[in-house]
Amino acid sequence: MEKVGKNPGQKEIEITELCEYIGQMVTLHGSIYKVRKMSGFCFVILRTARYTVQCVCDRQEVMAELQEEACVELTAMVIGEERAKAGFELHIHGMKVLSRPQAQMPIVMNQKRIEASLEHKLDYRPLTLRNEKERAVFKLQEGILRGFRKFFEEEGFTEIHSPKIVCAGAEGGANIFQLDYFGRNAYLAQSPQFYKQMMVGVFERVFEIGPVFRAEKHDTARHLNEYTGVDFEMGYIQSFRELMEMEVQMLRSALTMLREEYRHELELLQVKLPELEEIPAIKFSEAKALVQERTGREPGECHDFEPEEEKQLSEIILRETGSEFVFVTHYPASKRPFYAMEDMENREETVSFDLIFRGLEITTGGQRIHDYHMQMEKMRRLGMDVEAFESYLMIHKHGMPPHGGLGLGLERFTARLLEFENVRQASLFPRDINRLTP
């Protein structure tokens, strides 16, 4: 009888450890990324899980078997070489072919950059992600989430996983996907908002990282119809500013993780990480006036920012403070959901905020209404069907602490961190109004 679960006993050698094996024979596996044939020998670039490594091959029997994108197991001697960037070379002695491609690659993906339009690259995404720079984007995205999770763990947050099939939208409006749920109307969740508020009454501090769905018919460089939301909610707050301070720490944790653990990808993509000490904050009304004053631009939409205004505000703040981030606070109540708490000093404003990073809004957050009567009054004032939210209002009826939270768009944050023009470059397999495959 076969037994499963015991340690196989053979330790995989990491590429970064090869310098410790100079003069020794090693075995590596990966895909043949590129073959450069010379006179009597060839260079072989092997793509492993995270790195590419250059090998030299002068064995004719091996050279005859080389094929780009073949999955192989190589036996090679580690030779010290001062001229090599890594300080060593791998001289191939043998190769075992594990699998071979059965068709020619439809797009050239093993150059320094893929010379194709974004649409063409997305059409062949399962293949173009094999390019070392394309895949580095999502290794960095992994690092961002590792940094966030480290922060949440240190601050006592509990990770939750809320349902994505819901009976009502958290934010209302028409930007919600409807589906048939055994003969009843159901929707894809716009946000884990209701559930993370519910769980504040259970765990006090919670976070979730998961998909968010928006049925917005936008075909722009900043919109996706499915994206990854990084949400947290926390109870017993005294001010919405505690949420902003918590986000600053969360972002610092991610940037520290990238600096310490992802130097390879940062150098490969030549990423300029922002310095993050403190983030300036400005009221929405003051920010609108500042942009108009400095640019002469007409304010446009009076209850929200237009994309160009976000860019202009970022430029002004960067010039005057050196910060690539800016919090915009006190958004008009008319532009915030029904659960947003209004400022007691000015009921036309909410104690809420957005975080803008390098010209793009990446976070929306704020304090929520926790008082049952206050929430009921606001919903009735807005003409909402209170009975449709009975399960949500249960938490208010049976006692909730002052609380609030935020949601950050992972793809937007990644895109601005890497200074991409289009958010779809930072989405593994983007879903927009035109794209459902691959």
Q: Report how far apart the termini are.
A: 41 Å
Helicity, in percent? 25-40%
Reported CATH architecture of the largest domain: 2-Layer Sandwich
CATH superfamily of the largest domain, by name, is Bira Bifunctional Protein, Domain 2
**What is the overall number of helices?**
12
Instruction: List segments where confidence is low: pLDDT < 50 over at least 5 consecutive residues.
Output: none
Strand content: 25-35%
CATH topology of the largest domain: BirA Bifunctional Protein, domain 2
* Total number of strands: 18
Structural class: alpha+beta
Mean pLDDT: 94
Keyphrases for this structure?
2 domains, 12 helices, 8-stranded mixed beta sheet, OB fold (Dihydrolipoamide Acetyltransferase, E2P), alpha+beta, BirA Bifunctional Protein, domain 2, 18 strands, 26% strand
Commentary on this structure:
This protein has twelve helices and 18 strands. The strands form four sheets. An eight-stranded mixed beta sheet has the order 6-10-11-18-17-16-13-12, sandwiched between helices. It has helices spanning 60-63, 118-123, 125-128, 132-154, 193-203, 241-261, 263-269, 284-295, 307-321, 372-381, 390-397, 410-417, and strands spanning 25-37, 42-47, 52-57, 71-80, 88-99, 158-159, 165-166, 178-181, 184-188, 205-213, 226-235, 281-283, 325-329, 342-343, 346-350, 352-357, 360-367, 403-409. The chain is elongated. Helix 4 (132-154) packs across helix 7 (263-269) and helix 10 runs antiparallel to helix 11. The mean pLDDT is 94. Strand 14 and strand 15 form a beta hairpin. The chain has two domains: 15-99, OB fold (Dihydrolipoamide Acetyltransferase, E2P); 132-426, BirA Bifunctional Protein, domain 2 (2-Layer Sandwich). With 438 residues, it is α+β, with helices and mostly antiparallel strands. The chain starts with 24 loop residues before the first strand and ends in a 21-residue tail after the last helix.
